[in-house]
Design goal:
- It is built from 7 helices and 11 strands.
- The chain is of the alpha/beta class.
- The chain folds into 2 domains: about 160 residues, Rossmann fold; about 100 residues, GMP Synthetase, Chain A, domain 3.
- The protein is elongated.
- The mean pLDDT is about 85.
């Protein structure tokens, strides 16, 4: 697309969104992959002064049910393949679907093509106004909201441009997901009755390069076993997206600092150091149960 085409489409989408009730300060959850409508909606939402909350398409219903109320989301834009994930999530939010088919109760994005391309804002957007809200990961709690203003986000782009050495005329392709997708596992495991504490680190894997591995300190009275490892893995699998699934578990004491914080650097070192080909009796892999 050319800049002219993008300006035209973003104007159409902005007018169409305003017709659906999007107004200054409204928070719009945008859950799309790296597709053209992603950029159309981002630019369109900026014109009336809406605030964009990017979200990964890998999020599952539980993650969305957490983000919508905490993010005070007023409107949701996603593709038709993702709409089922929002079923049963309460709230007074506008559902907008992009793609083939017309899910019940969702506004079809195709309607935006009939809107006028010239957009006139109702007010002034100031440099200090919010532009983006990202759900980033916490180490001991739920993902946190981190905000960008109309100035801080462009400044971040400029610093990235200089760091990457981008020159006029260069084509820059960003392959990362539009929404930050990390989450606090060590928070998830605490909800399992058999787990006292846990820490997740990457474990080398010949096929995937690395997979998530949990070091688990069991609660009093619990004994390590394959059955318990399978139970914990199933517990995790039901509550997180597939890419965050724990693939290995080792029952062990957790190294800590003098202040009581888990020394993940030590656990990562154990994983990257030379390890014997035979696993310990308290280490279990997802493949053991397939």
């Amino acid at each position: 697309m050319t800049y002219t085409e993008m300006a035209t489409r973003s104007g159409q989408v902005a007018n169409w969104l305003c017709g659906l009730g999007v107004s200054r300060g409204d928070r719009v959850l945008l859950m799309l992959g790296n597709v053209v409508p992603l950029w159309e909606v981002i630019l369109a939402a900026m014109k009336p002064g809406a605030v964009i909350i990017p979200a990964s398409t890998l999020l599952q219903p539980a993650g969305l049910a957490d983000r919508l109320p905490r993010g005070r989301v007023r409107h949701v834009v996603t593709d038709t393949a993702q709409t089922a994930k929002f079923s049963g999530i309460p709230g007074d939010w506008t559902p907008i679907a992009i793609g083939p088919g017309e899910p019940d109760g969702w506004h079809a994005y195709a309607g935006s093509f009939a809107a006028p391309s010239t957009f006139t804002p109702e007010g002034v957007t100031r440099a200090s106004d919010p532009l983006l809200l990202y759900f980033t990961s916490g180490t001991t709690a739920q993902p946190k909201l981190v905000g960008h203003t109309q100035v801080s986000y462009p400044v971040g782009h400029l610093s990235t441009m200089y760091w990457a050495g981008i020159q006029p005329g260069d084509v820059h392709l960003n392959l990362s997901s539009p929404g930050w997708a990390k989450h606090a596992w060590s928070n998830l495991f605490a909800k399992h009755e058999a787990v006292a504490e846990a820490a997740v680190v990457p474990s080398p894997d010949p096929l995937r390069l690395a997979v998530p591995k949990a070091y688990v300190l069991l609660a009093a009275g619990q004994e390590p076993s394959g059955e318990l490892a399978q139970s914990i893995m199933a517990f995790c699998r039901e509550r997180v997206a597939p890419y965050k699934r724990i693939r290995r578990i080792e029952f062990a004491d957790l190294p800590k600092t003098i202040s009581g914080k888990i020394r993940r650097v030590e656990l990562r070192g154990q994983e990257t150091a030379s390890r014997p080909p035979v696993r310990g009796v308290t280490e279990f892999w997802e493949d053991d149960f397939s």
